[in-house]
UniProtKB/TrEMBL annotation:
Keywords: Chaperone, Cytoplasm, Isomerase, Rotamase. This is Peptidyl-prolyl cis-trans isomerase. InterPro entries: PPIase_dom_sf (IPR046357), PPIase_FKBP_dom (IPR001179). PANTHER family: FKBP-TYPE PEPTIDYL-PROLYL CIS-TRANS ISOMERASE SLYD. GO terms for molecular function: peptidyl-prolyl cis-trans isomerase activity. One of its GO terms (cellular component) is cytoplasm. GO terms for biological process: protein refolding. Its EC number is 5.2.1.8.
Length: 203
């Protein structure tokens, strides 16, 4: 696959100055574009849950399941400089809550953990693969754990500005996420290429 396959570039003629005959190129967000966005995420009550402010733009590989479906769909076709606000329903965000994912687990199953307390999170192996579970209650030798995403069942509002759009490199397409740094993989990177990947765990 060629780098940037799916990214579209269209010429944009500058307005207000007919003497300028150089066409500017504008890249529209499409599959396999590397996109950088500034964003603020709020819940239905308007409370800020997350923001890129102070941390720098979030970069992702469009069309490769790096973002929740509803936000990625809203970004399709946008260009650098575009801003928008959208409320993504739970079904297109982190899904509806599934009460079957809330179970009671004996405390002796938490091997190597001194004291299990509400609010703790653990990685658990399930039939659907690894999941992060949150302890919601501890009583009578049992811990209630919730394998739902913390934002499951919630409509989420995103205030977004597109900072940059570019074609992905062949290596980024192979790994399925953008490489934004030159200091090797970070601890959160799971691409399996500690020497060749420069993503810095950015996905």
């Amino acid at each position: 696959m060629e780098p940037g396959y799916g990214c579209t570039i269209k010429p944009l003629l500058p307005t207000g100055n007919d003497s300028i005959n150089v066409l500017q190129k504008v890249m529209n967000i499409a599959k396999d574009c590397v996109v950088s966005i500034d964003y603020t995420l709020t819940d239905p009550e308007g409370q800020v849950l997350d923001t890129s402010s102070g941390a720098g733009p979030l970069s992702y590989l469009h069309g490769n399941d790096n973002l929740i479906p509803g936000l990625e769909k809203a970004l399709e076709g946008k260009t650098a400089g575009d801003s928008f606000k959208i409320t993504v329903p739970a079904v297109d965000a982190y899904g509806e809550r599934d009460e079957h994912l809330v179970i009671n687990v004996p405390l002796d199953r938490f091997q190597g953990v001194g004291t299990v307390e509400a609010g703790m999170q653990f990685e658990a192996e399930t039939a659907d693969g690894s999941r992060i579970v949150t302890v919601t209650k501890v009583a009578n030798g049992m811990a209630t754990v919730d394998a739902n995403h913390p934002l499951a069942g919630m409509d989420l509002t995103f205030d977004v500005k597109v900072v940059d759009v570019r074609a992905a490199t062949a290596e980024e397409l192979e790994h399925g996420h953008p490489h934004m740094h030159d200091d090797g993989c970070g601890e959160d990177c799971d691409c399996g290429d500690d020497e060749g990947c420069n993503c810095g765990g950015c996905h």
